[in-house]
Amino acid sequence: MKKNILFCSLLLSAAMTFTSCSSDEPANAECDIEQAWVHMEDPGRIFYHKADTIADILPSYDSNDIQFPLVRYNANIGMVPFYVVITPGAKIYQLVNGKEVAFASGSPVDFSDDQEQRFRVRSENGAYMREYTIRIKHDKEPSISTQTCELGTVAFTAVPLSGNQFSADQVMDIDPYGEVPVHIEGTYDGHTATFTLTFSLDDEHSVELNYAEEELRGTWNGQEIIPQTGVVQVSEAGGQLSITLSELSVQTATLIHFNFEDFGFDQTNTFHVWTETDPTVNDPALWATGNPGFQLSMSSATWDMYPSISEEGGVDGGRCVKLTTRSTGSFGAMVNMRIAAGNLFTGSFDVGNALKEALAATLMGKSFAHKPLTMRGYYKFVPGSTKQDKAGKPIEGETDVCDFYCVVYKNTDANGNKVQLDGNILDTDKTKNPYVDNIVGIARVKSADIITGAEAWNYFELPVVYTQELEQDEVLGRQYSVAVVFSSSIDGAYFRGAIGSTLWIDNVTLMCEY
To answer: Of 37, 318, 321, 393, which sees the most CB atoms within 10 A?
Structure first.
């Protein structure tokens, strides 16, 4: 680790068993790549942002793999000047066919075809070395599954009522399919209508629309639709029922599923990490946790004692994520960080800041080429017995509660510089969250709606409320980031919560407009 990580070396020596060179070693024993970037005349032609020419290097145990932000899917990159800053006194070599070749910063390196390039850094005293894998990965063309069908106005009149049940058939002209048989059936109790419309457009195309609680759902060609319609009017007169859907249109949604089945151990083989295989996401390292920070204070903990673990017993019988608020022991008390809430979030964790600026260490959100409309999934939650404040004192009359939300934000500032929100993401105080105005959409569970109990899974569906319209070209160009966050204690970021509070999460889906 780099020397600017100001930890108590004696207390943390057992915890700092990472693959990087430890901070308690002499200066001439360090062997780190501290900065890495590429140079090109027109970075916007290759990358989504000009800042993407600089690699993110966290002072972390897993930073042996350095990956630049994604190259545009239709861009070509080949030999480019590659610059590095390494530990003073150290020497860097490029590995060519397994052999060391002295490397001068700024020399051209071939990053074409997403190929990995390997480098080795040797410490000044020659006693230590560290190998790095450098990669500039192409994005995949956004996988947009949306289709649109304009159905116009659908009107059913003089539908005979039988009790509160109704059913009818008619033929309507739908361009370009011509005259199409349409079937409707449902119930009407004098105040609320619930019905299903079925269209068989042709041998390959069919639409099923379900209307209930003033909301339209359904499928088109087997794909889920985004609820959108004009006006639904229902009236009853003389035992007859009239239903009119004006300016009806159907648009299928892009669905991104997270089932949390893909997990493993970190490089120290100590705690669980999750990867994503959904090609729609194109980011295997989408998920992060605070587990690396917990390791600093509880280095002797086994994997099942960590705040964020994988567990059997998911919704469909597979695995799920279990998040538990844990005590950080005597060391946590010494640095006034007595608890560690179990968390899982899209982003990364900067372990180098974990004890210095905990909120700044939690880097929330990754660039996303889709516009989320809802976040849904399943959860269970059991609060711990006693909620405590940061000083470890009980908070009278207050019960701990979990938290989960989705935040969409613009990931550049007015000058085109990169914006990365951290653990202050929901704070409206600009001194703590200077980029709060970059947030354009939020979906968050209400604490009052949380159901407690470990017996049954509870379904949730949270609409993303946007404060402004988003340009589709900007979204597809990864100009926005999405942070999906789960925590076992709502105030865990401020070290307030109940030890033992447990949140289980499974089968999370983002329904996107495109």
So the answer is: 321
